[in-house]
Amino acid sequence: MHELAIAENIVDTVCTRAAGRPVRRVTLRIGALTAVLPDHMRFCFDLAAAGTAAHGAALDLDLRPAVVYCRSCQVEQRLPDLIPLCPCGSADVTVTTGRELDIVSMEVA
Question: Any known ligand binding at 44?
Answer without folding.
Answer: no
